[in-house]
Amino acid sequence: MTYSEVIKQDHPEGTMSVKAFKLVSAVEREMLMGDKAHINIECIECCGKNLYIGTNDCFIYHFLLDEKISTAGKVTFAATKQLHKYLGFKKSVTELKAASALTRLLVLCDNTITLVNMMNLEPVPTGARIKGAVTFTLNENPVSGDPFCVEVCIISVKRRTIQMFMVFEDRVQIVKEVFTPEQPYAVAVDGYYLCLALTTQYIILNYNTGISQDLFPYCSDEKRPIVKRIGRQEFLLAGPGGLGMFATVDGISQRAPVHWSENVIGAALCFPYVVALDDEFITVHSMLDQQQKQTLPFKEGHILQDFEGKVIVATNKGVYILVPLPLEKQIQDLLASHRVEEALVLAKGARRNIPKEKFQVMYKRILQQAGFIQFAQLQFLEAKELFRSGQLDVRELISLYPFLLPTSSSFIRSHPPLHEYADLNQLTQGDQEKMTKCKRFLMSYLNEVRSTDVANGYKEDIDTALLKLYAEANHESLLDLLVSENFCLLTDSAAWLEKHKKYFALGLLYHYNGQDAAALQLWVKIVNGDIQDSTRSDLYEYIVDFLTFCSDQDLVWKYSEWALQKNEEVGVQIFTKRPLEEQEKNINPDDIISRLNKYPKSLVKYLEHLVLERRIEKEKYHTHLAVLYLEAIFQLKSVATDNCTETTELLFKLRSLLQKSDLYRIHFILDKIRGTDLHMESAILYGKLEEHEKALHILVHELKDFHAAEEYCIWNSENRGLQYRQRLFHMLLSVYLNTGTSDCALVMAAVDLLNNHAAEFDAALVLQLVPDNWSVQLLCPFLAGAVRQSIHTTRMTQIALGLAQAENLIYKHEKVKQKGTPILLSDKKVCQVCQNPFCKPVFVKYPNGGMVHTHCAANRHLNSNMIHRSSSSSNQT
Amino acid sequence: MKKPDGKVVLLGDMSVGKTSLLHRYMERRFQDTVSTVGGAFYLKQWGPYNISIWDTAGREQFHGLGSMYCRGAAAVILTYDVNSLQSLTELEDRFLALTDTASADCIFAIVGNKVDLTDDCALSPETEDENRPEKSLASCGSIKVRKQVRAEDAIALYKKILKYKMLDEKDVPAAEKMCFETSAKTGYKVDYLFETVFEMVVPIIVRQKAEGSPQTVDITDYKPAKRTKSGCCA
């Protein structure tokens, strides 16, 4: 017969099938029967390299099967005939099963199972046999635990009877006989569980407990049942409507059924595939997704069995082997036809069939390949997940995008390639929209991975690529990237930024790489309009800020000039906002001042900074600032007649400085304002010189500002005591009264002063000054206050006097008490210091009553010690 | 393969829309389906649990498989077509008996699908928006009588099921709560159906786990000494 492989389109989506198996001839008919047409193959068994064939003319053939793999990977089998043996009946050999541990072949012929030697096919000498078997099966999950024993289950010729046997090397032993509700037609065993095809249904029967479980109904009259153990506690059954049903020993289905054709003859398992045979085809379904994967035309097949992973199919005349293609090859085929989902399911399913290390390498690669397939279809979410789980070297992805990898990168794409694309242009076929989407994806992907382990070892490549993408796309994150920690390679990135006219960003890159000079040069050019980059509208302020925090003095000097020219008031911030530490350490204020001389506004700001903010106590700065204020005021006054707000503000600042500071050169300033209308200022200056009379004179007569005069008295006497204050107020009163002219306003001012500040005056002195013609009423508040004050003082003094007298009395009392008792000196009285008697009537008596010699008391320190010691010693005795 | 913690089975006559309901819920879309062969299942992650949802074949041919699919089920969703009284009757006549193998504390939901086909106003395009199902229900409430199967019929069936199972109404969720009307085509109340069922299944899973019930057996760590629980009709 001839066979050829046909790939059938059998998926609803119309996808291509997998090539999972290849059909290879193993034993040709000539080797078996030559031209004797009546001889048919009835059954086969394969154990290791041994292939046994049972025929309808009661022969057993033994072949050795040699697998050969050509250099091209093509698998062929060569069968060498070892023996053939006639069993001596006129019946077919219906079943063969090898028990390799016993080197026995179990042969079912004429309802009897005989044991023959696997090598020479001779029956065992004991003649051990099982009689009355319709069919039999071996328990592949034996319960006895004896390695030199196989468990055999037979369907007996007796009605509704199953028997279990233990078969040893040369004897058999019945273990159990169970009866079934209906006649069984097929059986499979796993442990104590029998899976049975009865007349009308499939059941699970535990032969140990006798408990049975219905699976599902099935009509054995119409179709041949199939019961196949596919793994621990799981069976594959032929179900209604051409279904391959899975059932566990608990009677449940854990996998969805596979859909075979209606007339399946046999089924075999080769993970992850279920192979089925019908009149015309061998079909291959995946247990992982239940889909049909492959169809091989095969006519007149009547046996399909798997033996230790080897799937063998036979017609009446020949034996063929279904050689599984390597899983990797299958997966690659699936990937090649972009069937990612199936490829991954297959790969995952293969996990337990492949050594762990090998699997991991393979699986990673598959995930990566799958990722690129999804990527090419712009399924970015899926692609990202696959890249992540496949631990893709990110550069593989970057390298798809032209020019993104730095020229210095040592990256070479993996071989064999993970995908079929040369670059993004090929992948998108020039579609700009797709290209943009791909770039956007790479941006987000690189941004995500750059701070993870994935980036280790090639952070430069990733960051440089990200910079290029951002720059090209005009993405705002470009700046964030450059101002935070990054590994962008300078030369590559600089060229790219320049190309895309991202000069501001380029400056940031230079700065990050310690090239502040280059950065500043670039930015200044932008501000000056020599080059165009509108990234920042406030670039000038940015530069000022940059210089403020720049520790390179040369750069600061170089560019501060430029900054000041642009804007004096903002430019000076370079110096005024500079961190204090930096200011104190590195830059001499005098240098700055000499530089700022050209820029008066800046100079004022800077001096204000020194004097008012930093409170530097140097006469030079204080005087300088005062002079500058003055000059500015004169300047303004010369142009404008009215006092504009600017002048007012300056005057306020000047006054505040003159009042609060004690450091400026008073006479120098006084000279400057002499002859001008800055009366208030002169008054302040006179005040500083303690020439209060002059100052008050100006305030009262020149300015006629009585309130200011009072204020003057108050602030000039601050922290200087009551007397000083009284002196000032008296002075002011004198100025009001001793004018010669009787100016009514001055008189009123004097009255108000007295009435409002009664406490600041010595009433007695005031009364001498007050003109006689003033009424008492006029000065009533003052006088009342003064009298009250005077009385208060009197009383306070009386109290103090009384208290002092009382105290004096107490001391007198003490004195009398001390004098009261006479002290008798005798021989028995001894000095507490030297313990000698007193020889003279002179002694010292301490308040506590202790008496000592005068000379002993002379050294008080020693004395007190002695006293202490003597008292403590007396305590001890 | 992830081991499911609980099982939910969809039962009902052919072409009432079992596959479409499941497809709408899992894949978020409606598409023409072909007649289900044998059965299929999905795994749904629900909180910490994996729930397997079995879609069964409604065709008479596969009827025999139903018992096996239902074995140990924590919930059975009995599905009918609101435009076919026959499909409701079939639930009682043919499908109810299949649930004998389900878990003893199995919950039942009765679902009338294809409400979009009722000749009322209906579930105009706005119902595509699954967030506003209540509104559309209210807007077409009065014309529902034109449907072949009324909601009361489903409730009556639910009570019959309780009687059949010899369950007390007090011990099980209320009939009104367990009878649904859905449209797989528009998505109307599909999420609500499955989520309601899952919420009720979780306590059953917890109980089964606590009891170490062998209804779902982990074939990877089986101990031979363990006995199967006998089926109720064995």
UniProtKB/TrEMBL annotation, chain A:
Major location category of this protein:
cytoplasm
Positions of the CNH domain: 38-311
CHCR repeat ranges are 577-741
One Pfam family, short name: CNH
What does the record list as GO biological process?
autophagy; endosomal vesicle fusion; intracellular protein transport
Cellular component per GO?
Answer: cytoplasm; membrane
Keywords (alphabetical) are:
Cytoplasm, Protein transport, Receptor, Transport
Location(s), subcellular: Cytoplasm
Could you name the domain of life of the organism this protein comes from? Answer: Eukaryota
Q: What is the recorded name of this protein?
A: Transforming growth factor-beta receptor-associated protein 1 isoform X1
Gene name per UniProt: TGFBRAP1
TrEMBL record, chain B:
Q: Which Pfam families match?
A: Ras
InterPro entries (UniProt xref): P-loop_NTPase (IPR027417), Rab20 (IPR041836), Small_GTP-bd (IPR005225), Small_GTPase (IPR001806)
Recorded hits in NCBIfam families, A to Z, give: small_GTP
Q: Which gene name does the record give?
A: RAB20
Q: Which organism is it from?
A: Apteryx mantelli
Top-level lineage group = Eukaryota
The name under which this protein is listed is Ras-related protein Rab-20
Q: Which CDD domains match?
A: Rab20
Could you confirm whether the keyword Disulfide bond appears in this record?
no
Q: Which family does it belong to?
A: Belongs to the small GTPase superfamily. Rab family.
Using the record for this protein, list the coiled-coil segments as residue ranges, or answer none: none
Record-annotated membrane-spanning stretches: none
* Keywords in alphabetical order: GTP-binding, Nucleotide-binding
Q: Which SMART domains match?
A: RAB (SM00175), RAS (SM00173), RHO (SM00174)
